[in-house]
Amino acid sequence: MTEGSQQKRVVVVGAGWAGLGATYHLAKQGYDVTLLEAGPYPGGLVAGWQTTAGKSVEAGIHGFWYPYRNIFALINELNIHPFTTWTRSAQYSPAGLEVESPIFQDLPRLPTPLGTFIYTQFQRLPLIDRLSALPLLYAVVDFDNSDAAWRRYDSVTARELFKDFGVSARLYKDAFEPMLLVGLFAPGEQCSAAATLGMLYFFILAHQADFDVVWSRGTVGEKIFRPWVERMEKAGAKILPKHRVTDLIIDSNNQATGVVCGNEVFDADAVIFAVGITGMKKIVANSPSLQSRAEFRNLYNLGAIDVLATRIWFDRKINIPRPSNACFGFDATTGWTFFDLNALHDEYKNEPGTVIEADFYHANQFLNWSDQEIISNVQRYLTTCVPEFREAKVIDSSVVRLPQAVTHFAPGSYPYMLPAKTSFSNVFMSGDWIVNRHGSWSQEKAYVTGLEAANLVVSHLGRGKPTEILPVEADEAHIQVARSLNQTVRGLSKSILPNFWLP
């Protein structure tokens, strides 16, 4: 290899969806990529691991929704088969079953959002309450994921949004807030209205089939990340767990030349950060280079949410109507989900008893409880939903506490979330909390931002080809017309009325 064609070195920090996505593409393009992960294995919070007894556990179950076009394309490229078929889900409250969802793609497609309203089977919610959501469609149309739309809605709470648009108190309490508790992981008064509209549109409202979901047939680490990492390593990537980044080395040209991990330095022609808010704040706390920039100091205006993941083995088979279930109303500020792993995971298909994963979001009040208190509480909640759990005995269990684990899209947080490009010319950001215009959320957004960061490196260093990023499915025709008309009216209003507030 000649001097001019010497491999360019890229250091990626964080081995979740974003970091793995960036590493994979850059390795395929011939870069010398080193992926640094603070934890003991690649995959971050989504990976999963085995207990000393050889049982699989993970930091919560993660679904893969119909609009995850880029992740599904990756799975096809890797030629692996990690997913269940499309599954139906249910929703419970302390009063019992509240909602059952069909597999929407199997039903005649109606213009959005009619399919969501008509095909979803509400057990108790009166039609008059459901109809009170119709005025909210204006906000859905008005929020187009642009910077201006984020600034309009970000300082407003989700609760204010629903109240101001006339959503009934019952519809908010029994439908929208439960979606927030398991979608944005916080109650409505603690969620940005902008994030709420973005999340609801991507997962539920944009197209009828968007709420359909599949699940990994084992831990994501085993079924997806392990074969993916093997492919990366064959392409030449170096993946180093147990490497906690403490600083960057910045030269006089405003460029990072190295990444510091304690006493080790990894030389770099470009750097991609792919860690969550909590991890990024820890890096900034140790890094004089990052602390020198306001954009990184301001990350302390952002927060994260506590999660609790439990896995319980019961002594008998229990009939659970749906494999995935969301629950609300058991605690005022906490949502939770439970999953029938006998139905979802290959290793439990022939288990003589029942294996349940129950995950709690915004679980701060539970983290200090003992494992026994937590497991007893989970069994009590499960019994409310499926009475057969009352007689079952717990024969094994796992409790994983995850303080400050997932992004909190709090009101007023948008101005402090970073874009992919930073004030260091060769340092790029990725992750589900990074500002981008793609429109996706959660794991799909993290993966997409990893690809976007990789493309910025390719552009900056001038080697290789950018990867194709599949856009979200286009808005339906009536939504496109409504958004175009709304933008026209907004433009006219701006030219006539004084601009007292941000757009």
State the main characteristics.
503 residues, alpha/beta, 8-stranded mixed sheet, 5-stranded parallel sheet, 17 helices, globular, Zeta_carotene_desat/Oxidored
Main beta sheet strand tally, sense and closure:
8 strands, mixed
Global structural class: alpha/beta
Q: How many helix segments?
A: 17
Whole-number mean pLDDT = 94
Reading side by side through the largest sheet, how are the strands ordered?
8-7-6-16-17-18-15-19
Organism: Anabaena azotica FACHB-119
InterPro entries: Amino_oxidase, FAD/NAD-bd_sf, Zeta_carotene_desat/Oxidored
Protein name: FAD-dependent oxidoreductase
Pfam families: Amino_oxidase
Q: Can you describe this structure?
A:
- By secondary structure, this protein is α/β, with parallel strands linked by helices.
- 34% of the residues lie in helices and 21% in strands.
- Helix 1 packs parallel to helix 10 and helix 1 packs parallel to helix 16.
- The protein is globular and about 65 Å long.
- The model has no long low-confidence stretch (mean pLDDT 94).
- This is FAD-dependent oxidoreductase.
Question: In terms of topology, how is this protein built?
Answer:
Blueprint: E1 9-13, H1 17-28, E2 32-36, E3 49-50, E4 56-57, E5 63-65, H2 69-78, E6 89-93, E7 96-101, H3 114-119, E8 121-122, H4 127-131, H5 137-142, H6 147-153, H7 158-164, H8 169-183, H9 193-205, E9 213-215, H10 220-234, E10 238-240, E11 247-250, E12 256-261, E13 264-267, E14 270-273, H11 277-286, H12 288-291, H13 294-297, E15 303-314, E16 324-331, E17 334-340, H14 341-344, E18 355-361, H15 371-385, E19 394-408, E20 427-429, H16 442-461, H17 477-496
Parallel strand pairs: 1-2, 1-14, 2-10, 6-16, 14-20
Antiparallel strand pairs: 3-4, 5-9, 6-7, 7-8, 11-12, 12-13, 15-18, 15-19, 16-17, 17-18
